[in-house]
Amino acid sequence: MHKRLFLLVGLGLAAGIGLPRLPRPEGLFQRAAQDDAEVAAVRRRVGMLAAELESSRADVERMRRRQERFGELGAVLQSLEQQLSATRDELARERERADAEAAARTAAEEDLTRRITALDAGLETRWTDLQRAVLETHSLAEAASGSLDEFRRDASPDRDRMWNELMGPTVQLAGESTVGSGVLLPSKRGDDGRYTTHLLTAWHVVRDILADADGLERPIPVTLYQQDGGERHRTATLLEFDPTLDVALLSMNGDEAYRYGAQLPSPQRLAECGVFDPIYAVGCPLGNDPIPTYGEIADTAHEVNDESYWMISAPTYIGNSGGGIFDARTHELLGIFSKIYTHGNLRPTVVPHMGLVTPMDRISTWLVEVGHGAVLEPGAPQPRAAGANR
Predict the structure, then answer these.
(1) pLDDT for 112-143, tens place per residue?
(2) The whole model's pTM is what?
(3) So what CATH class is 160-375?
């Protein structure tokens, strides 16, 4: 079509410029027909090329997508290779650790085997030595059986002496709603032949008994105990007291001599007292007859409300207040029981092994200060410098 138009325009131009000769019409038509055939062929070729081009474009797009997919697969492969490498390294380390543990286990087994072998080697010898030692010990035991029985007799406690020196001096002080303990001191004969006997106890016990009676002049009820279980009832009069020390001195009413009285320690003995010294705490807990409990001095400078006490581990309870703390070996009176620890506020629980004691060195100093130092004689401790050994 274009070629035909071109030819016609060309003919027009030729005519316009006065070409001398024009082609013959039949020649022109023949040529136009040839041009149409060529145009059609070109068109077919162009269509084929366009189809091929479209197909090539599709192939190119597929190849592009495939290349992108290959890129993604490559990234995945690279990640997997990195993970595989890390896993391979971890397995290598685990293998090294396993090899080290196996080597250590092998060494331990070999060492254990050597030890067992050595033990087996000496076992028979040791067994023979043990049999020999047993036979020798048996022979010695038979030879010394008489001495052993004698030793056991000598080592058994002298219960009569212990009762006389620990239980006998212990008395009970009781009011309408109060019960406590006290310790008799040895009776002393005056120039007129009459006896005076003093009694040490805790001030708060006397205070509560007198509070029931609304007065300081009332005699204090005192119960004395006999080894056969008998009781005697007497009274005592308050002479001196010190709320800070929580100690009170009473005098038994009457002029009779009492069989039992606590032994008072020397100043040197008190100076030697310290932690781990064995003691007996004797008192009348809950209004019972005197009960001894065994323990040790746990502290000799325990501060409570700026006051210094001993702490003891011997079990004590309500009613032990005012009772004696005695040396477990010499039975000397080392202090007067004062307080006991409790735990909790709503429902306080008594802690029996944490009792507080006013030591005799402080009581001795106080007795001298208030003019009653004579109760410490004879052979009684004299006042010494304040403070206690820990």
Answers:
(1) 888 888 877 777 777 777 777 667 666 666 66
(2) 0.59
(3) mainly beta
